[in-house]
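User: Okay, second chain of the day. Same drill as before: sequence in, structure tokens out.
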Amino acid sequence: MITSQNILWVIRSAGERTVDACKELIEASVPSDHVVLINERPFSAALKKSFQLCTDSTFEWSIHIDADVLISMKGCEELIAKVNQVDTTVFSVQGVTIDKFIPIYRTAGNGMYRNKVLKQALSLIPNDGEALRPEGELIDRMLKKGYQKLRTNNIVGVHDYEQYYRDIYRKVFLHSKKHLNVLGMASNYWLDNATMDRDYTIALLASRVAKYYEGPLFLTPGFQKEEIEVLFHLNDIQEKGPLPKNSFSKKNVSTIVENFTANQDLQQKKYPEYYTAEFLMTLKSASTRTRSALLTSIGSELKRSGKKLIHKGKLDN
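Assistant: Same drill. Structure tokens below.
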């Protein structure tokens, strides 16, 4: 039986502020020699390095956690339990995280892989600049090979909490291109919370600048580096210091998980499948769900427009 104690844990880091906290939370529950930290940039290189480590290991499965995710071991255990129930054609099992900047449950920063399949997956990893979502593109390519992926609604951690301002800016800049369909609602959320948390002020700044950017996009820490330095200087933004040790405990993560309420409109528009629990992704189902998500998005937009028209009609009368 696969458990948290007999799989390989891979932390993928690009210098995140929470890398030590991420590692501490994992090593509080599993042997430290079962935990590997890699520092590779860009993300496509991190995928290659992590997959190579897994194919060379004796572990049957591996769980990959981005260093900007602070795990809930309870949710991870629930996710890991699913691999004992899946068919051999399933090469990946994924949970959800609670996202700080798109305040919903979404599939970010985590995933489990069947290690013996990763040798084939290595040759399918897109090059830097080839895809905005390298891991998602890789999975699509694996689906075309006849493999399947299991998505679950197990909450395995919290995503993008306590990050450096520069990383928040860079990530939201990319969000503004990757998640254009929810940018308006997300921006309203950042605006509502900016006075209480400066992270959201940075998010607003990034989204406003990204609106006028038409150049190539890269998933590297050096992307927009000079522009960020100038903007922060002009706006008197001082970077955060390193996150102190033991800043995040299991209890801290549990509190966020237990008290979190997703933005319902955003959830329905971005990832409505969360509510239907788990489902298998195949090549056919992936395209079907893309159409389903589009129809859901259109339906939500029509619903909001209808409410505005009703309100306007009442005012006119």
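Confidence is low (pLDDT under 50) at residues 288-303, 307-315.

User: Thanks, on to the next one.
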